[in-house]
Amino acid sequence: FNELRLSIWSSTLLDFVCEMNADLQAAIAASLADQGGAQSDDSDVVCQGEDVFSVEMTDTDGDTILFMLVDGDVQQYVNGNLEIPRVAALSLDESTGRVQDSKGRFTVPPHLRARLQSLKALLSKAGVEITPWQSSEPSASHSAGAAFDDDGMEAALEASIAETRRQNNQLCLDREREHVKDNAVLRQHDTINQFHTHFSKAISKYQAPSAICGYMTIAHCRLLRKLLEGAPDPLPLSALRAAGRRLITEVDSVSVETERAMRSIAQKRKKYMDAHPQAFASASERRLYLRAWVANFEISDELREDGLPQSELPASSHLFKKRERESEPAAAQQVPSLHFARFNEYPQKDIATHEERARILSEQQRFGGCIDAKGESFFDPPATAYILERFSPPSSSSSSPSSADSELLTPAEWQAAEARAEDGARVFAVDLNGHYAAAVVAQVWEEDQVRSVVQVYNTTEANYLDGPMPSALHGFVFPSSAR
After folding, report:
1. Threshold 0.70, pTM exceeds
2. Which residues pair with 440 in a beta bridge?
3. Are 343 and 384 in contact (CB under 8 A)?
4. C-alpha distances in angstroms, 64 versus 15, 96, 420, 432?
5. pLDDT tens per residue, range 293-329
6. Is 460 exposed, middle or buried (0-12, 13-18, 19+ CB in 10 A)?
7. Strand positions, DSSP E, 4-155
8. Residues 6+ apart with CB under 8 A from 467
9. Residue 126 burial by CB count (10 A; 0-12/13-18/19+): exposed, middle or buried?
10. CA nearest to 336, candidates 429, 467, 465
11. What's the CA gap between 293 and 362, in Å, rounded?
């Protein structure tokens, strides 16, 4: 469990904290022009004659990574931001696309792995040490040619996040984006900054990880369902935007619900450790387990046990008044349904540990999937890369009036189940492959037309609309639009 989380954390941390800087990209382009470089058609390798000056690639997390030769040194940029001023060593494996630098790891997708040869040429030009990828090294290793212990790994990650907090001390982000892709309208509203020191006290109190997107996603899902109670179908565009701004202005409610999720998950983790003392022999192992990233099964458990907030929102925050709901009973739903769009983790069963491994084996085996010789997940039919979890309303026999049933479904199974459900806005927790966010998926009335929209409410400044999940989710909910 800890190794899996730390591995994911190290390889995707930059995806949380890096934002494309257009001015810096322009400066890089100008610098390359000054060197006399001629950019290739796909803008990935910049050469002058036989000499490579720059190599650019997009990793499997969607980050744009640029290595550039400047005054004899190789500099590394991530999404336009200078990440490593002087690359001293690098470990890579051309067959699997895995690369490890002094800040973490990333994986180059198969169709771009030929560029690793150009990268090796660039690094050799600057005298950078290139070491082969050590496939047997523990996943907590974090520097080329050397391995950190778990405590060292944790310290390195904490230092990176501390630097991020120092550079960006803005609590309220309030930035909106839109991406229309293959008939899918995808929107993202960056709300509250999860890396702000506003959350430091709660993180310390519950020994939570510094990257708290899982907790905030639980909080946002619960609050969004309350905010959109009684929403009409189709949903006004103004309501989607207002919901995002409520998540910003009602930061106290977000904080209460985030801390509630931290407390609940911490209690469950402590209970698991107490029941399995042999697996946590040292204080370090216990601490790392407590501070591991939130897992899919933990988000599922929290939302299944209670899909609504316990904190009371001010009356002024409600988007749809009771009298408005009563005036259009046929068009309104009381509370949006709740779902979780997840990636199939079954191929990773041998990497996962502790409770996570047990849950993957018991819950996801039927969805299939394997790991190939290169260490990549693949899904031959009928296996599926995506799992949609559907939370049913509380049953009359439930021991808790707020708890719900849930079932993990293939996309086709989910569509069949939803065909029998009422139309209207749906609230999703969304697995973004190393990050989590909440989303509202709905038919939206805007500019005198109805559009099918996936609206993501995010807690960082990074753009997640280009990843595979948002567009896939749109196709699952609105199959007639996926053409």
Report:
1. no
2. 427, 455
3. no
4. 10, 18, 42, 17
5. 899 999 999 999 998 888 776 666 667 755 444 444 4
6. buried
7. 38-39, 45-48, 51-58, 64-70, 73-78, 81-84, 89-93, 98-101, 104-107, 129-132
8. 61, 62, 432, 433
9. middle
10. 429
11. 21
